[in-house]
Design goal:
mainly alpha, Muramoyl-pentapeptide Carboxypeptidase, domain 1, 3 domains, two-stranded antiparallel ribbon, 18 helices, about 5% strand, globular, binds calcium ion
């Protein structure tokens, strides 16, 4: 159950992280929920004292507890400000990719791949996750360790927990952070990361750290802040635990033959190959494996066959844009070509209100059962495809203003 917990936690944090490509854990281009109206710079000491019995009951010593909270008296106003910030509209995937998979990042990642070749080979051998995927996560999460975050984790988590943000989630993460300090993996002053508590070069929340972090360089500490070997192995360990299938990639950039039948969008890779789908890098598709066609900019734009491993990537950070960035960066690091097909015009894209209206309309037609949250993801894509097939439209699963107008015209 620890895996599922880590997954859930990661998903929740994803929902908090605002758009922005460069920052740690910045995979997410989804709006944050407005936070509670906590006064800035609240006194944290009563909260900390109330936490003490729970921490001690979990094996945290008085000395560790005192060291962890030394100098922590007031809430971090920057952290609170981030929770209150209204989300921007989700950034279109093509804009996100420009930043996340820049030429500079590809070059840098390839240099790191050469420099860390023996470590990466050992990580690959132990966890069954390809080096390019591990490097891509490292690149997107922290720009290969350069942007690991500078916010002290204990104070950030105490601030979020004291404010009651997301129920007890951050209180539980704070207790997990104290457990890490008790084990001595990192000194309190070194435990840093993002405003939302994601730590170090891999941006793990403390609970994910406890479940998945690895001491790969053998110095006795699981150091995702200072050790590149530990960071890389921890990423691979997490993906392995989430069920990464070493026989498949995350997905494959492909070209579709003319008049491809979009209604049969989920099939075995061998079936797609038989129907004329080809990888853009010229390599053959694997002989078998579940896959579905992903057209993140609609038909005519870049096309991908995504495998079950795509869901593993999304479990690390639940966003299609994030997962596609990791996958495409991995392909580019491995020497694959840039995306060739053009992206559609940004005007052909629904904003959050439009997506919510579409979700509501599809729900009225019993095609969509999720929340009207304005987020484009697998559930909405599936519902859009069902509507498109029902109406004889190209079944690309892509939500556009034209599709919303079509739906309104039918209601
Ligand atoms: Ca270590």
């Amino acid at each position: 159950m620890r895996i599922r917990t880590g997954r859930l936690v990661r998903i929740l944090v994803s929902a908090l992280v605002l758009a922005g490509v460069a920052g740690p854990g910045a995979g997410l281009a989804q709006p944050a929920q407005p936070g509670p109206k906590a006064p800035a710079a609240a006194n944290l000491r009563p909260f900390i004292e109330a936490l003490r019995p729970d921490a001690l009951a979990r094996g945290v010593s008085e000395a560790t507890f005192a060291a962890a909270f030394a100098g922590v008296t007031k809430a971090d106003p920057d952290v609170l400000a981030r929770t209150r910030r209204q989300g921007e509209f989700a950034r279109p995937v093509w804009e996100y990719l420009v930043g996340a998979v820049s030429g500079a990042r590809v070059a840098r990642g390839q240099a790191e791949a050469a420099r860390l070749a023996s470590t990466l080979a050992a990580v690959e051998a132990r966890f069954g996750v390809p080096r390019w995927i591990v490097l891509a996560f490292w690149g997107v999460e922290s720009d290969f360790g350069v942007s690991a975050g500078t916010v002290p984790t204990v104070r950030a988590l105490a601030t979020l927990a004291q404010a009651g943000f997301r129920g007890t989630l951050f209180r539980d993460e704070l207790l997990a952070a104290l457990a890490i300090l008790e084990r001595g993996d990192i000194a309190p002053a070194g435990m840093k990361g993002s405003w939302a508590g994601a730590m170090g070069q891999v941006q793990f929340l403390p609970s994910s750290f406890l479940a998945h972090a690895v001491d790969f360089d053998g110095d006795g500490h699981r150091d995702i802040w200072g050790s590149q070997a530990d960071a890389l192995a921890s990423i691979a360990s997490y993906l392995n635990a989430l069920g990464w299938n070493p026989a498949l990639s995350w997905g494959y950039a492909v070209t579709l033959p003319p008049d491809f039948d979009l209604t049969a969008y989920r099939a075995d890779l061998s079936d797609f190959a038989r129907r004329g789908v080809r990888r853009t890098d010229g390599a053959p598709l694997p002989a078998s494996g579940n896959a579905s066609l992903f057209l993140p900019g609609g038909h005519g734009g870049p096309a991908f066959l995504i495998t079950d491993n795509f869901e593993v990537v999304r479990a690390y950070n639940t966003s299609d844009s994030y997962a596609l960035a990791v996958g495409h960066l991995a392909d580019r690091l491995a020497g694959g070509p840039p995306l060739a097909a053009p992206w559609p015009n940004a005007a052909a894209r629904l904003d959050k209100a439009g997506l919510q209206a579409l979700q509501a309309g599809l729900a009225d037609r019993k095609l969509y059962a999720g929340e009207a949250d304005g987020r484009a993801g697998p559930k909405l894509r599936e519902a859009v495809r069902r509507y498109q097939i029902e109406q004889g439209l190209p079944a690309d699963g892509y939500a556009t203003p034209a599709l919303l107008a079509h739906l309104k015209g039918r209601s």
